[in-house]
Amino acid sequence: MAAIAISVPDLSASPQPYAELKRRVEAAGLMRKRPGYYVLMLVTNTLAFGTTLWLLTLVHGVWATVLMAAVLAFVSGQLGFQLHDSGHRQMFQSRRLNTVIGIVTGNGLLGMSHGWWVDKHNRHHGNPNHQDLDPDIDVGVIAYSEEQAAAKTGLGRWIARHQASLFFPLLFGLAWTMHVKGVQYLINTKERLRWVEVGVLGMHALAFPALLVVMVGPWRALLVIVVQKCVGGFYLASVFAPNHKGMPQIEKGQELDFLRSQVLTSRNVRSNPLTDLLYGSLNYQIEHHLFPTMPRCNIRRAHTIVRAYCAELGVPYHETSIYRSYREILSFLHEVGAPLRQAPA
Prior knowledge:
Layout: H1 17-27, H2 35-56, H3 62-87, H4 95-110, H5 114-126, H6 146-151, H7 154-161, H8 163-170, H9 174-188, H10 194-216, H11 218-244, H12 258-263, E1 268-269, H13 273-278, H14 285-290, H15 299-313, E2 319-320, H16 322-342
């Protein structure tokens, strides 16, 4: 399946559908910054991170350490959402303040380049599920089209053949990949804040392992880092996966207006307060792609407006359960790998 066919509704009665939607959302006050919310979130996440590290000093058994490291991975995931929001400048009016928070969170606390994340993620937002332009469906471990699968060789071809079965185990590697990609970006970029990022990232690389060694000893420190990275990567990847995987892909030369390019390629996961917390409100992926600078705490209200407007225009709006979203993803990956499984060995 190279791409799922996109059915284009007739929007001739509304030549600028996004402009009208934006007007309605702004009229509801949903694009206004919510600094109080984000100050509370920053304080909460910082306390959670510090408290989890302190609790590590109170446990001594291997399995208790693994459990606390998994808790640290969850908190790290929440910090990842914090990095995401700062990268979109959702938090504060000041661009500089958002950037400082992003570098402290990404480079300082997580060991991941803020600049790399913003660059890659902005390119994704500009071209979601575009076969040539979206870096999130660029050729990597997972094949997102039969053409990508057929081009793989060796171990990569075997993985593509069985990628539906291997999907969840592969998610444990996301954090490690992000670290490598971030370092590669900082080596090659000419961005103004490159050396600031390098310095903060270097401090993390030295200070965080050293702190853990002082707190719990060298071998338990190594265990904590491995569990934190694997589980934290799995957590973030499991949140990111339903956003676009298995949704329509835009082929080269295919032109869609902004509203359709964002709505038709995105999948929402039905919300409740717990889902919103676990997903960092990225379960409202359609609304987030339409209004990436909208404060996270406003997006639930925007959801009602956007869904009703899409129904008004006849634009398909896909929203499903957590369980169903993963069934759709696995079905898509299974279909992409099918020609490799049917080919002679």
